[in-house]
Amino acid sequence: SKATVSVLYCRETLKKSTEMSQLTRVENARQAFSKYHSLVRKDGFVDAHLRYLMGKYGLSDFVPKLESFGQTCSQEIDSLARITGSPTLQRYDNFGNRIENIVFPEEYHQAGRLAYASKIISLYQSKTQRDAMSSSALHYILSHCGEAGHACPITCTVGLAKCIEHELTTNPSQYKKKTLKEWLSRIYNPNYDQHYHGSQFMTEVQGGSDVGANILKAVPVPATEPESVFTHKLHGEKWFCSAVDAQLWLVVARPEDNKDGTAGLHGYIVPRHLNNDPQQPNYYSIRRLKDKLGTRSMASAELDFNGALAMQLTGTFKDILTLVIDTSRIYNAVGDAGIINRAFLEARAYAHTRTAFGKPIINFPLIREQVSRLNVSAHASRSVGFYIMSLDVSKVSKEVQNARRMLVNLNKYWAAHEAITCVHQAIDVLGGNGAIEEFSVLPRLLRDSVVFAQWEGPHNTLCAQILRDCQRIRLHHDLFKLLRSVSEGRDVSLINSTASLWDRLITLPEAKASLVVRKLVDHLAYVVHITLLLSEDHPTSLAAAEHLSRTIPNVEKDFENCLSASDCDVLCKL
Question: What are the tens digits of pLDDT across the range 552-568?
Fold first, then answer.
């Protein structure tokens, strides 16, 4: 009948309409994914708060350079980092000669050429605080791509350049001076295919953070050739050698018959090749490349030194360590700040473009709060990172130098921990998509951030050093004095109450102070961030400070409620 035909027609029409609607929703979801990726890269990782900080520290004219490099990172280096595989070890050449060559995928070199062309290293040649800050800002932008195989070598190279610059001030011989200047000219060369980069080898299997346990031996070389700059031969092993492909290695070793502990150590520069010839390895062998959790496109190795020729650096090991570790911890935290901001950008873009239950998920309160907290962390990490970089140790007072030392260690600890947390939170916003390597950069950032946290002092080592500095030389007094000066007449009751907690901490027995200090370091990070953010005349900085003020932990109870030493004895018993 006509009625039956009409009903069947309506059903078929409704079915087709439903199918079309479903197809449209699927297509819209795929388009949203594409829009999400575009939004992350839209501004080249440069936002209003970063522009504000560059202006605050007199670097407004460098912002166009940052924006240009940001586009290079977001559009090119990021894509190369995603597809770059791990390096391999080529131990012998085609004729059986031992060459210890590290072979990288071509994408690794393409990314390196783009990174070094930004003058991220050569800016240091001017020796001005302004250009040092500009270099660090470029490093911050680069780290939005993760370690990407180059962030670690760049950090190590800056530290080595500082050591060489310092060595040139010690009135070296004409032959040594000539060699040092030749090395520096190659380090500062922005041409990736011609430059030298550096690395730092301190860790030995029996030591780890206990550098004083190192036993790599430095044997004097007889001075038979006046033009020779090599003073020692190195014998022994190093357990963790990152950026092992570097042309110049800064190595810590112990001269024969020297005293035990760090006082008996010295620093040495070891060229990877003799006579600048890749076919002549400098009396070393690579046992194997490390199979790391993260930073997988950067080569880390175990080394045996078999009489490697080395140039001993003037000055104490402590002098060299201060230059290198200070630089590495600052750059490490700046790199973490880049990762934190990338986590925020990924989460924000996805939350605005992903639709669920009929609306963008940014409209759900829990997602909205999660994205907001990521932005708070991004602001905090930028603020303290740029503030530390602005403190020129050659021009500030001894008290400010002391405060800076505590800030560097505090920031390295907090930023490393926060980067892991923030990337994990961003993955949570993306849900299942956040755990897929092809879909998102976040899994790689999570792996890299875990490795970042172990470089240049893991969390417990840094907290122990902060406690030791406060117990021995009352470093916290100078830090709180600095924070009060930054507050510029604002209420300092939070700073004063926190200072009292630290005064109380250093009166505790050693065992209890060690159990409490990490909670106080976490609390102190809040205080530092709130103080610095409130000093900024920027709306999102003030909003971030307000959020931190509402969520700062109450650590008074931790003095009484922490695990006791006896509890730990029971719970840790083998």
Answer: 998 887 777 777 777 77
